Amino acid sequence: MMNDHDLAILLLWTSGTLLAATLVFCTLWLRGRERDLRSALAKSAHEASAEIRHIVGAVDTIAVEIERISEAQRFTAQVLADKIEPEPPLVKRFPGRVITPH
Fold first, then answer.
1. H or E segment at 86?
2. What is the pLDDT of residue 56?
């Protein structure tokens, strides 16, 4: 039969073993959690850089289109300016009249 001393030793040994197992499992869980977080951060950083590259490409495309539009507007303005004949001076419009200062 077990006496109180043997029961206390068994209880201490069992408690110590359970404490050690708990600490080992907590350590392993924390390391796994840290590894998952680092992996998620690396993945999100990679996705963010992919999104930034996509945005940069879109902005470059918009800049090219704006340049094309401005070139087309310059060309149109030049064509319209060439088509419009300048207004003849007043002397040529009214040859019989002479403008005198008063």
1. none
2. 93
